[in-house]
Amino acid sequence: MIKRRSLLAAAGAGALGSALATGTARADSTISVDPSTTYGTWEGWGTSLAWWAKVFGSSAEYSDVFADLLFTDKTVTYMGTALPGLNLDIARYNLGACGWNTVQRSSGTVRMDPGRIPWHKQIAGFWLDPGSGTAESSVWNWDADPAQRAMLLKATQRGAISELFANSPMWWMTNSLNPSGATKQYGDNLNDTYRRHHASHLATVALHARENWGVDFVSVEPFNEPKAGNWWTGYAYPQEGCCINTAEQAVVLSLLREELDTRGLATTRISASDDATFEQAIPTWNDLKSNGGSTHLDRVNVHGYGAGSANAGTQRAQLYSSVVQGSGKALWSSENGTADADGFKMAQYLLADLYALHPTAWAYWQPLDTHPDWAMIHFTVNDGQDPAKGVTLSGDVNTKYWVMGQFSRHIRPGMKMLRTGVPHAAAALDESADKLVVVVANNGPLTNMTFDLSAFTTATGGANGVVYRWNTGVGEKYVRRTATVSGKKVTIPINANCVQTLEIQGVVV
Asked: Please, how many CA atoms are within 13 Å of residue 428, restricted to the half-sphere of its CB?
């Protein structure tokens, strides 16, 4: 998202170096994997659909190609290049806030003010008109948002689970009549009259999806970066967004639980608050605990856009301690993005998350993006409000795509996350297959890394002790090689700015 770039740039190269340099390998080292310390069961890797799905979800030529690339492990040919599918298993569906009809208010007839939102970021909502002003009196259009819905169904058919989230309440529920934010910075934009309407919109769509689309959302998230007040002003950023203070969040969370329950969706979880940074998420969580909002939460979602800040490591650990260890809630890193085409910074941040934040799911914002460095797969679109002017696929696939595959193709749902003791390596155990997966990054010179598995009862490797390992970096894209287990240890060479994944068979606690 556009706002992300300024946030990460603000972290500064010095802050980034101080946060990460000590956490990535620089010399020969030994990493001990500890099965006695676990950090939950992995739930999955994901992406938000939103803009890229609106562009390509109904494409006769590319919708199935991208669905297979993102949501399966198939080898897929994309514009002449054979790519390994990323095998993502979480699709975050963006409930839109846009509409192009008029609505009657006491002040007269009103219409959405789109601000600067370009056409591919204007996501249509389903609730067109509140009618008499009650949640029960309404006009709905279930044919809205056909392209993103089409991709949601394709992801579901390929085995993905899904979350429903809103960047903003429906435009007519806002004070500014503009789904990109209030008329002033830090202005709450959800009109008090429509708090229940916002909750009802989410719950009604969740029920309709279950009954008509074959999609059963595992969770519903009513907010998105609700503290980002310097972004969510009507003409400041060309995308949907809304400030909502924590007291109002608590009210909406309570109403959402009521609206879900009355529709028979008592098992549908509620997540919040999708703050942009760990620094924002900590006080939000503390506020929701004090005002009762946390009682309606099943999971805390947080975004990783402050991942490179000087205090990010401490903030990750504090959030995990408060949410998971202190309150027993689940925790997802639900939106991430980095402006590095090679994906190495993304890998460093991701490993730092697994080391200190310990989420059980991790999602990238837009793997298909109009920004050449934020994208895994790049495309361009006219920056106006006329879709007829077209979309162009450049065929560019960044190395970041293969780096993502180093994680998402190997650490799979159901695996237990284990302790490695270092922020540049993560480990996951598939107990049903007696398989250990280790992903490691190196930002120093060529080095040898040894993984000590002596804490396991058995660690033999495959036939003749063979271990398969995949490497991305230094001109290589997901190249498979081998190593050997010897005396419950595996040693690999790894070059600078490389990410490697090992699959070690015959590993038993």
From this structure: 29
For residue 183, pLDDT beyond 60: yes
User: Contact, 281 vs 251, CB < 8 A?
Assistant: no
From CA 474, how far away is CA 408, in angstroms rounded? 21
Distance CA 182, CA 186 (A): 8
Marked catalytic residue, from 221, 259, 335, 503: 335
CA distances from 386 to 128, 149, 169, 379, 394 (A): 21, 21, 24, 17, 20
Cα 362 from Cα 365, distance rounded (Å) = 10
Among 358, 507, 333, 361, which Cα is nearest to 433's?
507
User: What pLDDT, on the 0 to 100 scale, is given for residue 12?
Assistant: 36
| Apex 469 CA angle, 464 and 473, nearest 5 | 155
How does DSSP assign 12-68, residue by residue? -HHHHHHHHGGGSB-S-EEEE-EEEEEEEE--EEEEE-HHHHHHHTT-TTTHHHHHH
β 108-111/102-105 pair status: antiparallel
DSSP-derived 3-state class of residue 251: helix
Beta strands in 192-348 (DSSP E): 219-221, 269-275, 299-303, 330-336
Q: Fill in the DSSP letter of residue 287.
A: H
CA distance 69 to 129: 38
335 catalytic, yes or no?
Answer: yes
pTM above 0.90, yes or no: yes
Cβ within 8 Å of residue 43, ≥6 positions away:
90, 332, 360, 361, 413
Structure tokens, 97:
């806030």
Instruction: Report phi then psi at 166, rounded to 5.
Output: -125, 125
Instruction: Decide if pLDDT at 136 tops 90.
Output: no
pLDDT per position as a tens digit, 426-459: 999 999 999 999 999 998 899 999 999 999 999 9
* Separation CA 78–CA 84 (nearest Å): 10
- Residue 162: closest CA among 332, 47, 267, 65: 47
Query: Average pLDDT of 32-56?
Result: 97
Task: Calculate the alpha carbon distances from 286 to 247, 311, 419 in Å.
Answer: 12, 18, 27
User: Is the distance from CB of 340 to CB of 310 less than 8 angstroms?
Assistant: no
8 A C-beta contact, residue 209 and residue 148: no
Residue in 225, 240, 248, 503 annotated catalytic: 225
